[in-house]
Amino acid sequence: MLNLVLFGPPGAGKGTQSEKLIAKYQLVHLSTGDLLRSQIQAKTELGLQAKTLMDQGILVPDEVVIGMIDYKLQENQSAAGFIFDGFPRTVKQAEALDHLLAQYNEQITVMLSLEVDEEELTKRLLLRGHSSGRPDDQNEDLIRRRVTEYNEKTTPVAGYYQNQNKYVGIDGIGDIEMIFNTISQEIEKRRTA
Ligand code: AMP
User: Fold this and answer.
1) Whose CA is nearest to atom 6 of ligand 1?
2) Hey, which of 34, 36, 70 would you mutate to test ligand 1's pocket, going by the most ligand atoms within 8 Å of its Cβ?
3) I want to staple 79 with a disulfide (CB 3.0 to 4.6 A). Which of 13, 28, 37, 117 is the partner?
4) CA distances from 34 to 6, 69, 121, 124 (A)
């Protein structure tokens, strides 16, 4: 199995690169942000609770997203692999993911971290807000709140994968195809290693 963690702050290009990786490697896409947004749309209890936090740019509790990922792994046991997008966002989530994958004798192949500076992120997210309709992309204060949340709670996740020699930093500014080629090369290295 090929199990990728696509890492990086909001607006780094995780969604765009995920789409290309899924097409190339036939992976199942697990985006906790998308999963939460479908809960909101379906007006479930979980969705209503998550919305309050998401509207403030705050992370939802670990147990909630871990539970969603657990369910999706069970549901997709014959997959060629997974691409984790926007998850894990805390060290606790990263530990839980290792534990869940171990139940299937699986592990993370590599973490690909898209690196983009805050000014560029804000610019991209405000632009995305015009077309995506996502309320959390339309307000500059909220965008900065999400980036702060990322810097405080999510950055340590990179260290978690560095300790496992699975961290690869990728320059996330530039041509989408070029970034995709760099990512693909890193994946190929790990697959044949
Ligand atoms: P995203 O679509 O990944 O930018 O996520 C949108 C929002 O959903 C975030 O600002 C968080 O409030 C919430 N969220 C998504 N993924 C996670 C996660 N792995 N852990 C906690 N909160 C999350």
Assistant:
1) 33
2) 36
3) 28
4) 14, 12, 19, 19
7-31: b or e for each residue (b if 16 or more CB lie within 10 Å)?
Answer: bbbbbbbbbebbeebbeeeebbbbb
Q: Tell me the average pLDDT of the chain.
A: 94
CA 100 centroid distance within chain = 17
Rounded CA-CA distance 105/92 in Å is: 20
What pLDDT digit, counting tens, does each position of 106-155 carry? 999 999 999 999 899 989 988 888 888 888 888 888 888 998 999 999 99
How is residue 109 written in tokens?
């192949």
Q: So where are the chain's domains?
A: 2-27+79-116+155-192
Does 13 sit in the ligand 1 pocket, CB within 6 Å?
A: no
Q: Which atom of ligand 1 is nearest to the CA of 53?
A: 12
Q: Of 49, 53, 55, 59, which is best to mutate to test ligand 1, by the most ligand atoms within 8 angstroms of its C-beta?
A: 59
114: part of which helix (H) or strand (E)? strand 110-115
| 8 CB near ligand 1 (under 6 Å) | no
The matching CATH number, chosen from 1.10.10.10, 3.40.50.300, 3.40.50.2000, 3.90.1210.10, for 2-27+79-116+155-192 is: 3.40.50.300
